[in-house]
Amino acid sequence: MSAAKGMLDGKSALVTGAGSGIGRATALAFAREGAWVAAADQTLEAAQGTVAAIEAQGGQAVAIACDVTDDAAVEAMVAAAVAAFGGLDCAFNNAGIAPHQVNATGVLAADLAEASWQRLLDVNLTGVWRCLRHEVAQMRKQGGGAIVNTASIAGLRGLPGAAGYVVGKHGVVGLTKAAAIDHAAENIRVNAVCPGYIETPMTEESMRRRGDKIIARTALGRFGQPGEIAEAVVWLCSDRASFVTGSNWTVDGGYSAI
Ligand SMILES: NC(=O)c1ccc[n+]([C@@H]2O[C@H](COP(=O)([O-])OP(=O)(O)OC[C@H]3O[C@@H](n4cnc5c(N)ncnc54)[C@H](O)[C@@H]3O)[C@@H](O)[C@H]2O)c1
Fold first, then answer.
1. What residue ranges line ligand 1, CB within 6 angstroms?
2. Domains of the chain (ranges, CATH numbers)
3. Catalytic residue at 255?
4. d(CA 7, CA 38)
């Protein structure tokens, strides 16, 4: 019997927000499937923690410090990934922040402080676009690649008291569609994942406040785990998804089916 082949054998993959939650789980899943992983986060220590976990499971990875609100840092991040692994086949643009990280929990749309609005859009939407543009610049040189952006169920529907987050994530869904069309002829596929409520540091606070309500309206009756998002991202980045582009994949335990 031949050795099991990984879905991403021989590919290089970049993950932003790789130091925690969904990003860390996806970096680990990429490595498990045979990819070399560039793990980027705003602090080097967080990215290094993920690299250590990948190395502990026998994978290869490098840690990169990158704040996605800094375009020069994003350009340098892509260059560092390419320098480490000789190219860039897959990219997961996942770094993001929640309303509570900009003092906007439960704030009504018209009452948002402009600084909160700006910060949510700068990280969650423009940050994804900055990454995408530098990744596309590399992928078009190589003849193609696959990009996945992290949107949210908040990119498909409204949620109360989360206007800046909802707007940014709807923007990610729109960017995913637009970029998929624009770069299809360059053999670059662009998709998004739309997670429901996933157990990560980002959601600790909302789980404490209204976890029971969230679970009650989730068809599967529980929160999701970061690794359950990672599985969708791995597949979208793999050649098995060769005819999938411009799509937004809901992974929410049935939250939006109700
Ligand atoms: N957890 C959920 O329920 C859920 C649901 C839907 C969407 N999402 C999205 O999934 C993504 C990951 O979230 P998570 O739940 O894993 O959260 P998390 O807080 O565990 O991880 C987010 C990571 O992004 C990094 N980050 C934040 N701002 C950054 C910046 N400016 N530059 C670079 N890195 C930055 C953080 O350092 C952190 O490591 C986010 O885009 C989030 O909006 C999460």
1. 16-17, 19-23, 41-42, 46, 66-69, 94-97, 123, 127, 150, 152, 195, 197-198, 200-203
2. 12-250 (3.40.50.720)
3. no
4. 17
